[in-house]
Amino acid sequence: MRSVSIIGVGCTKFGERWDVSLRDMVAEAGVMAIDDASATGEQIDALYVGNMSGGRFVEQEHIGALIADCAGLSRLHIPSTRVEAACASGGLALRQAVLAVASGYHDIVIAAGVEKMTDVSSGTAADALAAAADREWECFFGATFPALYAMMARLHMRRYGTTHDQMAQVAVKNHYNACLNPIAQYHMEITVNDVNKSPMVADPLHILDCSPISDGAAAVVLAPTDMARRFSDLPVKIAASAQGSDTLALHDRRDLTTLDATVHAARKAFAQANVEPRQIDVAEVHDCFTIAEILAIEDLGFVEKGQGGKAVEEGMTALSGRLPINTSGGLKACGHPVGATGIKQAYEIALQLRGKAGRRQVDEAEVGLTHNVGGSGGTAIVHILTR
Amino acid sequence: MASGIVSYGVYIPRYRIRLNEIARVWGDGDDVAESLRVFEKSVPDLDEDAVTIAVEAARNAITRANIDPCRIGAVYAGSESHPYAVKPTGTIVGEAICTSSAFTAADFEFACKAGTAAMQACLGLVGSGFIDLGMAIGSDVSQGAPGDMLEYTAAAGGAAYIIGSRDLAAEIEGFFSFTTDTPDFWRREGMPYPEHGGRFTGEPAYFKHVTSAARGLMERLGTKADDYDYAVFHQPNGKFPVRVAAKLGFSKKQIEPGLVVPMIGNTYSGSCMIGLAATLDVAHPGDRIFVTSFGSGAGSDAFSISVKDKIEEIRCGAPSVRDYIGDAQYLDYAVYAKHKGKLRI
After folding, report:
1. Burial letters for A303-331: b for 16+ Cβ neighbours within 10 Å, e otherwise?
2. Do the chains contact at A121 and B200, CB–CB below 8 Å?
3. For residue range A180-220, what is the model confidence (pLDDT) as tens digits?
């Protein structure tokens, strides 16, 4: 297998992008990434795009051909593939692109992610997202995503003494980081009190514990590492790409407070990259709810099981902490256009490793990690990136 | 030829429900009223609808300036809650105020700005000399689905303006409209309650259209916010008009007399027109008033109005907006639900 590097990155502004369509956003991100790689359209060998539910959100399927077309590449007749793993669609697109280059099948490949979620009512959007859970055994019985994560939170609180204030601090931290990120959906700082006073969604999760409905697109261009310097002075190496799966329904899991898909993907990723969790300098993890970030830093091995809430409270994961988590603002505050999130995570870590993350730059970041989850943990994708 | 407002009349139903009472039923907490800056809203009686409200407002307009109804050559009624899908509100109003039959009538619908669109149509007919006087009405018994955010503000009320070119109480110096196809709020044929795009009703709808129409008019007339004594903007809640006024350079003092939504809610087609009436109730000759309506779907009509001496003469000829606001009887949610026909038997 060949070593693979990121040679270009691009990301649109995330948020309620009422003025643009899905195709506008994916074209914008794609052009940015190709420009950043100093590449031309003719050099692209293949496209992968993560998109969870174009059919439900904008009544558009066949997103693979669409993005090749709107990027002006249809005349080249290159393979263009849409992949779907719910909220991990972006991470999965990146992984498929990595495999395509690593295998030697293609050289220059774009991995993109896009979701346009605000064209439908919030009820329709929530129902489309609920399709990532087990429709027959969870949704039909009234479960929603906030409810599933609320169950994980309640058990975590009971078993490990995690408090809601600790969860709220995840949101406070991520909003702070988002204020430093020009592409973030929210540029407003919040307090623990704001989270506690915000409307309840599913006890103990308040609305400010939840990631928003967002529009956005992101793209990265990959090349074999031995070709990367021809395109970029600052290539970022993909040291590991791992994927894990688990039961679709939460109630079938071994442990409701552990995402085993994450545990297994992380283990494989750390082995591939030959690094330890303590060597990670910066990470983008899947904080679809505040409890999810606490579970993630435990399941990725950054802290002991049950110590995630305390780690957040003590500032370990803050921008100035030992391991800054979600410097982009995370799903919570940068926004969560589901198909784009996994690619945006790679975009953020690439900026950090290049030293180009502006006011949210982590000093001397050399090794970064991205963690993208589908549903309540049926899929997890972990990538480790290095300078 | 100068054209403008010869007389005006309003009507606001007596019944009110406090927003805290609605929040109590839906478990939303007392901060809803504060966040919307609306504290109570008007509720129609069991037998009141957009027609009866239009008739009351029209009669007040006739009475205020002692107008001969037979001079009225057009009755244009704007509403999004016309009781009939087919059969005009305007004809009922015309007969009720005893016009001759020699008048034209039509119903207007443009969400919350149908009434100001009717004013523009009257200005055209009056200005061209086709008719002596025209009557433009905005009246609504607006709908908000139980439990929907709209239910907190959807109220009832209306205003009627008699437009002419002689004996003006206020001259309309000019108007400017800004209209786009923006689906922020709609109600399909046969559906009891409207749907809306949540926050999409804000920036790309209300704020974009109100500011575009307002700036368009000020540019056309060469005026600025400081040139006006008062300003009135469509009032879907208590926050939007305050924010859009600040955006356009108007002070809180300029919009204060016309800001009636905290006490009566959003009267839809009546909203901006009742706000203008409340401002005319206190304005003096020589004052200038800047008015901008907004209708979802979407569009805004901005007007520049100059108050004339005649205002003093007609001011007390009919009940003021504050008279109606002060005459309130409060309902609990159960009786309110009965009044609004929310209980289907």
Report:
1. bebebbbbbbbeebbbbeeebbbbbbbbb
2. no
3. 999 999 999 999 999 999 989 999 999 999 999 999 999 99
Domain ranges of chain A: 4-121+214-236, 142-212+238-386
- Residues A19, B198: C-beta atoms closer than 8 Å: no
Q: Say how far apart CA A163 and CA B86 lie, in whole Å.
A: 60
Dump pLDDT digits (tens) for B93-152: 999 998 889 999 999 999 999 999 999 999 999 999 999 999 999 999 999 999 999 999
CATH 1.10.275.10 fits B172-311, yes or no: no
pLDDT digits (tens, 9 = 90+) for B173-209: 999 999 999 999 999 988 989 988 888 999 999 999 9
> Most B CBs within 10 Å: which of A18, A119, A124, A207, as the mutation test of the B interface?
A18
CB atoms within 10 A of CB A224: 17
Give residue B343's pLDDT. Answer: 86
CATH number of the domain at B4-169+315-339, out of 3.40.47.10, 3.40.1030.10, 1.25.40.20, 3.30.1540.10?
Answer: 3.40.47.10
Task: Clarify whether B80 is annotated catalytic.
Answer: yes
Residue reference for tokens 């395509």: A100
Neighbours of B269 (CB within 10 A): 37
Residues of A serving a catalytic function are: 87, 336
Whole-prediction pTM: 0.85
CA closest to A120 among chain B residues = B197
- Name the CATH code of domain A142-212+238-386 (choices 3.30.1120.10, 3.40.50.150, 3.30.70.270, 3.40.47.10): 3.40.47.10
Q: What is the ipTM of this complex?
A: 0.71
pLDDT number for residue B29: 77
Residue B267 CB-half CA count within 13 A: 37
Domain A4-121+214-236 CATH class label: alpha beta
B298 vs A contacts (CB less than 8 Å): none
CA distance linking residue B313 with residue B67, whole number of Å: 13
In chain B, where are the structural domains located? 4-169+315-339, 172-311
